[in-house]
Amino acid sequence: MTAPLKLTPMLKQYLEIKDQHKDSILFYRMGDFYEMFFEDAHVASKILSITLTSRNNKNDANRVPMCGVPYHAAQTYIAKLVRAGKRVAICEQVENPAEAKGIVRREVTRIISPGVVTDDQLLDEKENSYVSGVCRLTEGNRTIWGVSFLDLSTGDFSVGEFVEAGDVPEQLIDQMSRMNPAEILINVSQHQSLLPFLNAVELHLSGICITTRPSRIFHLESCVEMLTDHFQVISLDGFGCAGYHPGVIAAGVLLDYVIETQKADLAHIEKLKPIDLEAILLIDDSSRRNLELTQTLIGGKREGSLLSVLDRTCTPMGARLLKHYLLSPLQTPKRIKARLNAVGFLHKTSKIRKNLRETLCSIYDLERLNSRMVLGHGNGRDAVALKQSFARLPEIHQLLGECASPKLKEIYDGFDTL
b/e per residue, 227-245, with b = 16+ CB within 10 A? Predict the structure, then answer.
């Protein structure tokens, strides 16, 4: 007969915290290491190719499996786990061990999931990293799908609705494949009924992480209140979301998830943009793939695609915007002409174009630098990059002031030199 497992105070604390984060691998801080125990140790050791050991004698029938990674190299290991579709809960020591009475107090300070990342090692600088929320409501014989997308690393936040009967809404799946989220949040009580939709999405986005959220969060009034409190507005109508119900729920669920996982200020998420499908030319997933707009048919590589040929942008922000333009081309003549006029002016005016490019080449990724600083993840290198980038803004503003194009004049008028 096996003797019952004797738990030390440390293991008791570990299990109490782990019980609150059952769907995550818990990185439990112990001195200069993050340790993992029990099933987490088995899973992580295989993914990370690190040694699985135990806290007590290897011949002990009740030995506790464990593995660990150095604190200073944690980001590399976290990146591997997230790329493998795992969520990681970072559990830190929140009091000085020298002053602790008994076991050191620890708390989860941040949760990293495939769709909620801000670290350079986890991100492609030329790609957005979205997490998506989906809410399905039925009104009579109509099925309304609300969807929202958030890139935490840039603060880009959008919302839309699709009215389609059936379990597999084609327009929504097409939008999913265009936005390419790494993670989808759904109502836990709708998991079974949404399986046809989720299976269709996974055909286009293999390896996508599906995260279930409590049903109580999918409540219109509470989601409206959360969003209006965050944006400090009375109503969401000013964002163009009047009449949106499932869409607003999807956006509220996303915001709730980010608040829960980041435990930090989210001031860089400044607005909610409605997805206007009537303003863009819709290119279905099959056409996008066959035209090789952003990746090749064979191998799925960026190199060799139309985007790789066109992309001569100077900043990561420009590269992400160009990809967005390519996947969502305008179809409104007035907006097309305004963009062409700006491009034409810069094409003809080589001196201004050259000076703009030279200045932009010294600008770092302000969107992601700003997000990391607001979230409290920034470091000294990020601060220096911000300083150097801000120093070039007046020069860019001055160059835009020399541009005889309505679109570029509009950018000049709204430009903040900080």
Answer: beebbeeeebeebebeebb
Task: Supply 249's token pair.
Answer: 């729920």
- Rounded distance, CA 294 to CA 303, Å? 9
- Which residues are CB-contacts of 149 (< 8 A; sequence separation ≥ 6)? 130, 131, 132, 156, 157, 158, 159, 179, 181, 254
The answer to whether the beta carbons of residues 202 and 208 sit under 8 Å apart is yes
- 277: confidence class by pLDDT, cuts 50, 70, 90: confident
Are 80 and 92 within 8 A, CB to CB? no
One-letter amino acid at 196 equals P
Predicted confidence at residue 1, as pLDDT, reads 41
Residue 201 has phi, psi (to 5 degrees) of -65, -40
- Give the other-Cβ count within 10 Å of 259's Cβ: 14
Between CA 210 and CA 194 the distance in angstroms is 11
Distances from the Cα of 200 to the Cα of 168, 188, 197, 208, 300, angstroms: 7, 18, 5, 11, 19
Residue 160 has pLDDT above 80, yes or no: yes
Please give the Cα distance from 418 to 352 (Å, whole number): 22
CA dist., res. 131 & res. 209, Å (int): 9
Q: How far apart are CA 270 and CA 170, in angstroms?
A: 30
| Torsion angles phi and psi, residue 219, rounded to 5 | -130, 120
Average pLDDT, the chain: 90
**pTM score of the predicted model:** 0.88
Residue of 226, 80, 234, 204 lying closest to 148 (CA atoms) = 226
Q: Is the pLDDT of residue 58 over 70?
A: no
SS3 content of the chain, % helix, strand, coil (to 5): 45, 20, 35
Q: Which residue stretches of 272-314 are H helix?
A: 285-290, 306-310
- Total length of the chain: 418
SS3 call for 191? coil
Strands 53-54 and 25-30: unpaired
Element (H, E) at 187: strand 183-187
d(CA 35, CA 69): 7
pLDDT for residue 60 is more than 80: no
The residues that bridge with 28 in the sheet, in sequence order, are 35, 91
